[in-house]
Amino acid sequence: MWHDLxxxxxxxxxxxxxxxxxxxxxxxxxxxxxxxxxxxxxGFWLFxxxxxxxxxxxxxxxxxxxxxxxxxxALLDGVPVLVxxxxxxxxxxxxxNPPLKLAAPDxxxxxxxxxxxxxxxxxxxxxxxxxxxxxxxxxGSLAALLFAWSLDAPGVARIGARAFWQTFALALxxxxxxxxxxxxxxxxxxxxxxxxxxxxPVVAVGAALLPGAILWPGRVWTGAILxxxxxxxxxxxxxxxxxxAAVAAAGSxxxxxxxxDLSQMYARIHRLGMWGFLEASDVITRLRxxxxxxxxxxxxxxxxxxxxxVATLLGQSALIVARxxxxxxxxxxxxxxxxxxxxxxxxxxxxxxxxxxWALIFVALIQFRPREALRVYQVPVDRPFVRQFLPRNxxxxxxxxxxxxxxxxxxxxxxxxxxxxxxxxxxALPLVLGALLAQALCQALDTARLPDAxxxxxxxxxxxxxxxxxxxxxxxxxxxxxxALLALxxxxxxxxxxxSRSLPA
Amino acid sequence: MLHVENLxxxxxxxxxxxxxxxxxxxxxxxxxxxENGAGKSTLLRCVAGWxxxxxxxxxxxxxxxxxxxxxxxxxxxxxxxxxxxxxELTAWEHLHLVGQLHRLPDWQDRATHLxxxxxxxxxxxxxxxxxxxxxxxxxxxxxxxxxxPPLLLLDEPFNALDALARQTLWQALRAHAEQGGAVLFxxxxxxxxxxxxxxxxxxxxxxxxxxPPDSLDLTGLLAQN
Lengths: 505, 225
Description:
Strand order of the largest sheet of chain B: 6-7-8-3-9-10
Structural class of chain B: alpha/beta
Strand order of the largest sheet of chain A: 1-2
Largest sheet of chain A: 2 strands, antiparallel
Oligomer: heterodimer
Structural class of chain A: mainly alpha
Shape of chain A: globular
Low-confidence stretches of chain B: none
Order of helices and strands of chain B: EEEHEEHEHHHEHEEEH
Mean pLDDT of chain B: 87
Number of strands of chain A: 2
């Protein structure tokens, strides 16, 4: 173990050195440059960092002096709970995205070697967490200085230094707990691995019964400002030692084949580039779903024996939703709640008359397009081989493949409409559901061709603007929300008719 | 069966197909060959209705792509060289979906028979994205053969297949033609025993009909391209 730790640490140090050399090249320093030039460039950047740091400190001091002491004290009281939430959020992140990943050379040489799995996990943990923990420590130190200046606490520099070290230590400690749980979950077989979710109720109960223990990390940090955390130092060091040992222990039971599979999947995602998460989210979703499905030894559900195209497609869409992560139902519900909630809030704040209200609602409708609901419907658009076996009527396909996810979204939308006490439910519910259906039909038309070759394709954004203007215009001209509802129903009907006549893109 | 008239297709300024015409009668198996980049896949994609040609008309069994789009597509199935599937459905479920959507009365027996012939039966419960290239090609062929449309288009179908599957495929294509269907496939190499009725040499964006030689000469002919 120790020998492996040493070897792997040396390997990691060399890799980091290469990365630093690359970073320095970007800043204008080459290894072959003269010492004098290197000193000049390093001096220049150090001066720049010093200037920026001084500017930042000055800004924090001014903000701190402007913040009232009572407000700062009240904010400081809430910090332990905020820290707890941040820790829980990190747990969710490592649950969704297992933290132990290996680079391509590691996959070929390290993972395949008899090196201790615990050592591999520990070295990856330390190497991966040093930079983020340092960044957090810097942010934590600045936040502590803000409070210190606001509260006029003595020994500001000491408080900053103490907050830096304690934030760094707390970040390492929290990350180590997250890694340990994630590694343990990765090594465990179902159904025990689903027990991982018990962490959240346990933490909630713990926070209620033993707030001192659960909120301890946050209190350590606030103690750094209130000069009450000197005794926490040794305890933190011991806790980090134990947590690192736990990472190594959980890592030693790592199923390396699983780690290699996941690492390869993340390497493919990584290849999509910096903006891949925004521009190729569908590719990433597909890669994740493939990786999850490939690990399953038994697939959930089966295609029902039915007669009729719509029933078959409904069965197919239900099966796909069942086989995707359970998260898809939550995502559909959240997506259903979001757009109506935003629209209702905008109407509540701005009233129904101002143009700005409707402009903002249209922006929200364009932004929150029901992509998840059309996921199954959308698949054949990118895969024409599959498309040719499906019904040629797009409306038929829509009815079969979108009905179920749209119904789940509809539940979310209905909840958003009926839980607002000041909204008349009788009208809000059909309006919200009609608007959701119109959005879904516009999204489906976005990927279809109109039968008349001279007609331009129906883009989602324009369709929303035109249909929305018709509905809102009808309501405002007649002066009745029922007129808007009638217009919305006609718009839905028209869009459905257009979709039934459309051809595959 | 298939009538292509004056078909023109271009990628930007590069004209790939120049007023090409070809005809395939029911019961015929046509082999499309030509150099890399000659436009074989483009021609097949145009005929399948996956790509819109710049000019020309396409008709299968009287239905034209411009006039009766849905009827035209119902009569054609195209198996590309890299078919894609639903990630969440198993191989059997793909055939189940296709059989049920097309209301084939005996789809279960036919699907089982096809999987057996292509030696995929033991993998029927697996997800196609975990398959090798050859297995994916076999599943795609099974799906196309299950619905057995009047016109079957295949892009390099023999490439990814093992020797036994090549023979099976050729027998299936021949059987399809004997039942009145037509087949158009592209290939660079040919398995022994494969004897297409029509040879279509695609060169300079045009079809040059070639007299069907025996299979030994055919291998030599393809080797020149």
